[in-house]
Amino acid sequence: MEVHEPLLTVREAAKALAVRPGTIRAWCYQRRLARVRVGRRAVRIPVSEVRRIIREGSTTAQSTREMQKP
Prior knowledge:
4 helices
């Protein structure tokens, strides 16, 4: 991640990846997606992280459900 890299809101990142905002939050919680805290609760997603997910082809909500299976 670059020092002055553009940051996206959870909603913007979800739209770019064609997933729900809840999926973005889950990926952040699972440490699958890096985030930057801006305040106590708000987070932003670096553009490089969105590009990385696109490169990896991990843009389906199904992949999150599969990770949660025991």
